[in-house]
Amino acid sequence: MKKYQLVLLTVLSGVLLSLPWLELVPAWLLFGALVPLLFVEDHFFRQRATFPDVSFLPYAFLGFFLWNVLTCWWIAYAAPFGMVVIVVLNALFMAVVWWLFHKMKRSFRSSLGQISLLAFWLAFEYLHFNWDMEWPWLTLGNGFANQVEFVQWYEYSGVLGGSLWILAGNLILFQGLKILVHEHHWRAAAIYTSLFLLVVLLPMVLSIKRYANYIETGDAYEVVVLQPNIDPYHEKFAAGTEDRQLNTLLRLTDSLITSATDFVVGPETALQPMVENEDLRRNPQLLPFYERVESYLALNVVLGANTRRNFEKGERISETARKDSEQNHYYDLYNSVLLLNGQSQIQIYHKSKLVSGTEKMPFSRYFSFIEKYIVDLGGTTGSLGKQDKPSNFSSVSGLKVAPIICFESVFGQYIGEFVAQDAGLIFILTNDGWWKDSPGYRQLLAYARLRAVETRRSVARSANTGVSALINQRGDIEKSTEWWAESALKGELKANQEITFYVQYGDFIGRVCAFVSVLLLLSLLVRTKTKHI
């Protein structure tokens, strides 16, 4: 193939990968999206006597760069430099995975090379859930977030099962097309086509059957979700707007609560910053909500806020602690969720999965000297503090609920840890106004549907500017608001107490593939060294 043909095929893969995230085509297009790039890789494999293995790397980077930038360009609204870093680095990581797959094919037989692609890619996606530069946004299995009827089996595998499914489909389809193009072997191509259809359609059929027959379980709880619609750029953190914002929350609350209401859920940073060391029950922002709690004894109010905790003298400070020179003490800032009810103590959860570049500096031990340049989307600078382990809120009735903040809703295994600790409902609080009217907020909403399927937990999602929603255990959006509209909605969610296979075992596919990848890389290293002896 000529160079321009290789470029066109690479570009085609990048565009095809992007389309399902942009909601322009059905997700099943992903089963062929990588085939053009596989033909590019195969070209360099067939021409390995002419081209060094590194020749394939720029093409892989180009394809994945296009996928990343077409899908995640909206990050630039809030963090232009952050968007560039995320897009470039993530594309580079993806390209390196494919380059390693290409090297495996050159060093070993082709069939082992195909296996290595499955292992390396799934290990990479698993790493992106668990290291300090986590960015699992473009996990391949997320592509089915708006077609949950096809992936009900995520309750067993999580999204990594979807990634395996998509990769396997692409590899099988590619093999069939390659035989047809290079060898004109129609019978073999027909066998691969039949295998492709089996691999793609069988999980879909089983999923649709599960979707149609699934019956929600658990006691029903009435939930009110608030959407105050405060512009995060011009009003949310502007001085002099505090009373108006609080009154909006109270007005929306009063419009829907009754004596039967169990929960009111407001968005991320719904309240103004507060100090945890103080008696929060006397905080002027919370007093009006306590008045509602006293009137409705079963009521639990869940709201987001930026909080500060001052370290006591002699207390061990965290890595993210800042020094207050005027007061001569250290403190941490958090993106938090508060639950208040008729019980004596306010429950607080601190966001644990922080966004690199906007809420934390990855590998801060080594890059602390530039940490002050981190721009947090809550109006502060520098890395935020975080909570080490998941912790649920307990309601007046004893029901446990999982408080999830924004980016955390992308992490299936992490949310599974809340559910493993008996969370019966999932509450997601977010402020999607940062991304304006872009695919960003729609993608994050769709990911919440996958969390419902994986855990079989109903989800209440409160978004400052929308879209807020109530999602059932099948992943269906039962009720939702319009984007960029002051609104509130009310509905019943069932609190399931059963534990899914995925909640119990987490991303086991990723762990297995990480182990296999280590073995493959060791074998590649040995083979490479042997060739040079």
Automatic annotation (TrEMBL):
<comment type="pathway">
    <text>Protein modification; lipoprotein biosynthesis (N-acyl transfer).</text>
</comment>
<feature type="transmembrane region" description="Helical">
    <location>
        <begin position="151"/>
        <end position="174"/>
    </location>
</feature>
<dbReference type="GO" id="GO:0005886">
    <property type="term" value="C:plasma membrane"/>
</dbReference>
<feature type="transmembrane region" description="Helical">
    <location>
        <begin position="186"/>
        <end position="206"/>
    </location>
</feature>
<dbReference type="InterPro" id="IPR004563">
    <property type="entry name" value="Apolipo_AcylTrfase"/>
</dbReference>
<dbReference type="Pfam" id="PF00795">
    <property type="entry name" value="CN_hydrolase"/>
</dbReference>
<comment type="function">
    <text>Catalyzes the phospholipid dependent N-acylation of the N-terminal cysteine of apolipoprotein, the last step in lipoprotein maturation.</text>
</comment>
<keyword id="KW-0472">Membrane</keyword>
<feature type="domain" description="CN hydrolase">
    <location>
        <begin position="226"/>
        <end position="495"/>
    </location>
</feature>
<dbReference type="Pfam" id="PF20154">
    <property type="entry name" value="LNT_N"/>
</dbReference>
<protein>
    <recommendedName>
        <fullName>Apolipoprotein N-acyltransferase</fullName>
        <ecNumber>2.3.1.269</ecNumber>
    </recommendedName>
</protein>
<feature type="transmembrane region" description="Helical">
    <location>
        <begin position="57"/>
        <end position="76"/>
    </location>
</feature>
<dbReference type="InterPro" id="IPR003010">
    <property type="entry name" value="C-N_Hydrolase"/>
</dbReference>
<comment type="similarity">
    <text>Belongs to the CN hydrolase family. Apolipoprotein N-acyltransferase subfamily.</text>
</comment>
<keyword id="KW-1133">Transmembrane helix</keyword>
<keyword id="KW-0012">Acyltransferase</keyword>
<feature type="transmembrane region" description="Helical">
    <location>
        <begin position="28"/>
        <end position="45"/>
    </location>
</feature>
<feature type="transmembrane region" description="Helical">
    <location>
        <begin position="508"/>
        <end position="526"/>
    </location>
</feature>
<dbReference type="InterPro" id="IPR045378">
    <property type="entry name" value="LNT_N"/>
</dbReference>
<dbReference type="GO" id="GO:0042158">
    <property type="term" value="P:lipoprotein biosynthetic process"/>
</dbReference>
<dbReference type="InterPro" id="IPR036526">
    <property type="entry name" value="C-N_Hydrolase_sf"/>
</dbReference>
<keyword id="KW-0808">Transferase</keyword>
<feature type="transmembrane region" description="Helical">
    <location>
        <begin position="82"/>
        <end position="101"/>
    </location>
</feature>
<dbReference type="GO" id="GO:0016410">
    <property type="term" value="F:N-acyltransferase activity"/>
</dbReference>
<keyword id="KW-0812">Transmembrane</keyword>
<keyword id="KW-1003">Cell membrane</keyword>
